[in-house]
Amino acid sequence: MEFSQQLGLYTQRVNDCLDLALPSQHTRPERLHDAMRYAALNGGKRVRPLLVYATGECLQIEPAKLDPIAVAIELIHAFSLVHDDLPAMDNDDLRRGMPTVHRQFDEATAILAADALQPLAFQAVAVSSALSDREKVGIIGKISQACGSLGMTGGQSIDLASEGKSLTGDELKTLHSLKTGALLVVCVTAVCDLSRDLNDDEITALNSFASSIGLAFQIRDDILDVEGETHVIGKPAGADERLNKATWPSIFGMDASLKQCAELLNDGVAELGRFGERADGLRWLARYIVERAK
């Protein structure tokens, strides 16, 4: 079965796993748990879990071992979005076509919900019966680095400090690679820890693929902020311009941004040649990331 045909199955699989991992909204403190579930289960493309499952297909890893990785990374992603939307950050009122968590609940509850989602991500890996202790340590180490000050959180800090400034291509690439790329890369590299058959060249190729697609993902986001419509992309269009953020289109123009996305897609897909048909899911997902409309 082609990966595009399994998309719904994988999406439902991770949604079911998230539902089990999250505390019930009827468990005290009910409001906090309701906000956590709202943040994690309120739609979303599930690109990161899909990248985990597509890598698992490529490396022939059983889905049960992929579930805790997919859940952990999606919970980290949800935590980051709640914080990004806060008044102290991007001050957004809309996410996935719905009120942001601090608007649906309140600012304090949103902060606490995000704070609780982050440790829950690591708990999902730590309590998994499908993973060995060695695998758990490796996966937790990779995810924690990807979301810390040398990864996603550091990228967000650089992003805030860069508002109103003109960055060089290398500076903007670093910002995007940390803020968005790091968590996308770990979707691939954490799965590599589950394979005993990979050689160094294959690991390097998968890492290069993920790095290219991670950067392309953020550039595409920048493009959609300019070209997209709020009701389609599910968040306020034009927000980057209003906040005077450093983006690929604002610095290099739309044509250069589209060209860069296409080049990154070609470079990333080329890295998958050694894996043959096993990597078809990764190829499909890479094209979806670069060509998506929301």
Describe this structure in words.
The protein is mainly alpha-helical and 294 residues long. It has one domain: Farnesyl Diphosphate Synthase (Orthogonal Bundle), CATH 1.10.600.10. 71% of the residues lie in helices and 1% in strands. The chain is built from 15 helices and two strands. A two-stranded antiparallel sheet has the order 1-2. Helix 10 packs parallel to helix 15 (280-291). The protein is globular, with a radius of gyration of 18 Å.
What is the compact description of this entry?
The protein is mainly alpha-helical and 294 residues long. 71% of the residues lie in helices and 1% in strands. The protein has helices spanning 3-21, 30-41, 47-59, 63-85, 101-104, 107-126, 133-147, 152-161, 169-192, 200-227, 230-233, 239-242, 248-252, 254-270, 280-291; strands at 94-95, 98-99.
